[in-house]
Each structure stands twice: as structure tokens, then as C-alpha cells.
Amino acid sequence: VAAPDRLSSYRSKRDFERTSEPKGKVAKAPKGAPRFVIQQHSATALHWDLRLEQDGVLRSWALTRGLPWTPDENHLAVHTEDHPMQYLDFEGDIPEGEYGGGNMFVWDVGWFEPHEMLDDKVVVTLHGQRAQGRHSLFAFKGKNWLIHRMDPPADPARQPLPAPFPPMKAVPGRLPTGDGWAFEVEHVGVRVLAQVSGGGVDLFTADGEDVSTRFPEVRRMGRAVGSTEVALDGVLAADGGEQAVRRRLEPASSSTVRRRSQREPVKLLVFDCLWWDGHPLLDVPWEERRERLEALALDDVAWATPTAHLGDGKPLRDAAKAQGIALIAKRRSSPYRPGEASKDWRRLGG
Ligand code: MN
User: Fold this and answer.
1) Which of 179, 234, 168 has the alpha carbon at shortest distance from 201?
2) Ligand 1 centroid vs 211 CA: distance in angstroms?
3) CA neighbor of 256 nearest in space, from 216, 209, 205
4) Cα 50 to middle of ligand 1, angstroms
5) What is the β-pairing status of strands 169-172 and 181-185?
6) 143 C-alpha vs ligand 1 centroid, how far in Å?
7) pLDDT digits (tens, 9 = 90+) for 116-149
8) How many Å apart are CA 97 and CA 238, to the nearest integer?
């Protein structure tokens, strides 16, 4: 039974003079199917809020890694207070310092079949644009619940992210001619593979060492990538050059890491996208990988995608040469070959 005070906890946490979130009221039971929303919420930690309509309010859980795509892996679902029905289409910036401060947008909205709607267990089939299939949620410890996908994966060909692999390398070469090439500035620093899943970022060096915890400023890139699962090739660069990045690689306490990340920040320069939502892109031509990479629109103080120049490389090569900078020429039709030095990537000058 819908009672007006089901939203009192929701209201008590918010100052409606300061936030544009709806104040809300308990709605009457709707005709037709109940609705759900999943909001991507960039609060203290990135998460996805799943809200299911029941008794005139939205029962809510914060999914720290989003929806599981396979029955093999359950995700944490932190139970949160009921929200008003008006939250179904809420998007915007909740002010810093307020409860849930940060940007929120509708990741998906749709309707669901309610199979079981108990206090400690919920089974629903979601019918959204992105979220599909039968899921169960069950309480296991206090407000911590788990969400389990009961249906087989919506994309049966989907594969988990692979183990870290070494980068493709360039070989010294001459300026190629014709329009089948792209030219990038060679950035000096430490080459890393960045794997992003459920908004979390893992960083691996070329020999497979996990250095994720050393670069908290780069790990925030998960917020920019969101729910897309990707593997990215890039270089960690710093104002102090390669040596400055190498100092950051040394093991240190978390307080030292935090201090170094502020005093000697690095920037991840991403130039290739090797995996996309369960599908390898290694055999895909460079220019299609580049399109995927640009779709991520990586542009921040701690991460970015440098320009790739198409067409005649000679003016760029001459300018780079004058400044003692090397270029990497990449054949636009070429696949990515982990660990290989390939003539499809030519290092020019420097
Ligand atoms: Mn939230």
C-alpha cells in the first residue's frame, strides 16, 4: 500500500532550495505495466541507479558496476531509499556538497514484468532500449544486495576483457606516400594498456605489471567512458618527461601516491581502441578503431586523444623534424598486432 511517508527519507536528505531534483509525491498505482529507469550517476563514485516502480514510488538500488551482462558474474546493488515517480526522467547536476552531488543522466528507461516483488528479493524482466532480460535482486547483508542476470547473455558472442597483452610497436622507416596513412606525434612516456569496465580503470605496463593504484588521476577516466567496456592503448606522459612518469611507477603508500598525483600529475594520451563491449577490435582496420576511439570523446586534464593527421605527411614531418620530434605513420587499413614490431607502423625521425 502506498503511504505518503514512503518518501520522507528521500526528502529529509535533500535541500530542495538547492537541488533541482523533484520533491515528489507518492503516485497512484499506474494503469498498464510498471516502469523502470537506470540513471548513470557520477557522484563520489560512478554508479548506475536502478529504480523499479512499485506502489507509487521507485524502489532504488545503486549498481556500482552497472548491470551484469552474463549470469556468471553478479554485481553489487546497494539498496537506497525509495524515490518519487517523477525521478523516472530526472537528469541534471546535483550541486557539489549536496546529497548525491554530481551529474546524473538517464542511461535507460522502459517497462518491466514484475515476477516477484518482495522486501528482500525482486525478480523482474526488463524491457528497455539497453537493459533487457530477466534479473533477480536479493539482499545478502544489510543494504547490500546482489543483482543476478537470469537470462543467457543478450549478446552470446560477447567475451570478457582479455588478459593484458603487450603493445604493437613501430619500426624505423621512411615517409610513406599516398593517402593510405595517418600520422601521429610520438609521445614520450610510459606505454600502458588501459582496460575500462563498469566505470573502473585498470592500467598495465608493456610487460603486464598492474600499475593502476599509482595513477588515481587517470583512473577517474572511468567516469568519461561510463558503461562501455574498452581496452585502450596509450602513453602516460608528464611535464617532467619519461623519468617523471617512471618515478610515479615506484611502489608507495596511498598517501604518497595521492600527493604525487597532485604534485607530478600524468596525462594518459590514448591513441588506439582495441576492445569494445565484449568484442576484440584487433583485426579491425586502424581507421575503424580510430572511429571508436573518437566516439569516446576523451578530453580532460588527465586523459585525451591526440590528433591523427591524414593525407600528405610531408609538411608535418618537416615541422616535427625541425623540433626534433618523431612521428608515427600508421597504415590506415592495418590491424593491431600485440607485441609485434610491424612495418604498418613506421617511426619517422626524432
Ligand atoms: Mn545515485
Assistant:
1) 234
2) 29
3) 216
4) 9
5) unpaired
6) 14
7) 999 999 999 999 888 999 999 999 999 999 999 9
8) 31
pLDDT score at 22: 84
Q: Would you state the torsion angle of the CA atoms of residues 305, 189, 246, 200, taken in this order, to the nearest 10 degrees?
A: 20
In sequence order, what are the residues at sequence separation of 6 or more whose Cβ sits closer than 8 angstroms to the Cβ of residue 330? 181, 182, 183, 184, 286, 308, 344, 345, 346
Q: Report d(CA 2, CA 303) in Å as an integer.
A: 47
Give dist(CA 149, CA 73) in Å, integer: 8
- 150 C-alpha vs ligand 1 centroid, how far in Å? 24
Q: Report how far residue 51's alpha carbon sits from residue 257's, in angstroms, rounded to the nearest whole number.
A: 37
Q: 263 C-alpha to center of ligand 1: Å?
A: 31
pLDDT tens per residue across span 263-319: 999 999 999 999 999 999 999 999 999 999 999 999 999 999 999 999 889 999 999
What is the phi/psi pair of residue 122, to 5°? -135, 130
Q: Could you identify the residue written with the cell 570478457?
A: 160
- Residue 58 Cα distances to 119, 218, 241, angstroms: 13, 35, 51
Centre of ligand 1 from the C-alpha of residue 52, in Å: 14
90 neighbors 105 (Cβ within 8 angstroms): no
Q: What spacing in Å lies between the alpha carbon of 100 and ligand 1's midpoint?
A: 6
Cell of 94: 546535483
What is the C-alpha separation between 267 and 200, in angstroms, rounded? Answer: 17
CA 108/CA 36 separation, integer angstroms? 8
